[in-house]
Amino acid sequence: MSARMQPSRQRGAAVIVAMLVVALATIAAAGFMFRSQLEWRKFENAADLDQARWILRAAEQWAATVLMDDARNSSVDHRGEAWAQELPPVESEGYVISGRLEEQDGRFNLNNLVVNGQVDEVQLAVFQRLLKVLRLPAELAWYVADWLDSDQEPVQPGSAESAYYLGLTPPYTAADRPLVSVDELIRVKGVDRDILGQLRPFVSALPQGNRVNVNTAPAEVLAALVESLTLDEAQALAAQRDRTWFRDTAEFQRALPHGLSANAGLTTVSSEYFVVRASARHGRISVGSRALLHRLGTQLPTILWRASL
Description:
This protein is α+β, with helices and mostly antiparallel strands. 42% of the residues lie in helices and 17% in strands. The protein contains 8 helices and 11 strands. The chain has helices spanning 5-73, 121-133, 140-148, 162-165, 193-199, 219-225, 231-243, 249-255; strands at 87-92, 95-103, 108-109, 114-115, 118-119, 203-204, 212-213, 267-268, 273-282, 285-294, 302-308. The chain has a 5-stranded antiparallel beta sheet. Strands 3-6 form a two-stranded parallel ribbon. α6 (219-225) packs across α7. The model has no long low-confidence stretch (mean pLDDT 88).
């Protein structure tokens, strides 16, 4: 190798090394910029998400205020009131907010099946009639009651207590306590997602015993409340009620077909429990929540639980 070629190769190698250094520096800088943008976007998303959650809390307070105002104006609750109207999407500060209130006392409260740890036969009969109207297996009433009651004795032969659930894979025990959410039914014998979906519009899981509001109850629940009331008769009754609501339970009794009557201890024309559903959307951020409100008298309702949608 000549002396003149060696410096030339050295200069060539130096150029290659310099180019490599520049390339590595460019890649490092690009990586830094990408990570910085990513971190900034994460920060923006977190800030937007936090603000959206505060907006959902504001929607809950709005719902509570609407319910308090309603209670101060009337002790009768029906579907023609302001709380029953869905809030149309509203845009504020770049967020699109929507929500609605879902009254819960018009549904059959599954926790009414058990009182002081023991099955209530009257409520059990109502639930069985509801299952019949919905064309669902009657034995589900036994399974749900045994899931809730405090003993390990089946309500009927073939029902299910902890001994049954411990034989499943994976094993678990019966709750032996009130339901917090209707969703818990999925763990009860005989309940699958299809059955849960059919039950959901007609049942609730409220924390204490309550009566059914006949002004808001679907026809299926009315048919379950009144023994021998057919679904067709209940639908006609509900249509009449939606035009002119019942001012008291005596008026409801008079509206029933001749010869039929409702257990006075099962019905009311007012409501205490409502679920508020709210959603907020901003750019890439979309969040939703549902919360159970308990309204007692004319006081501001309290939030019993909150969950994400």
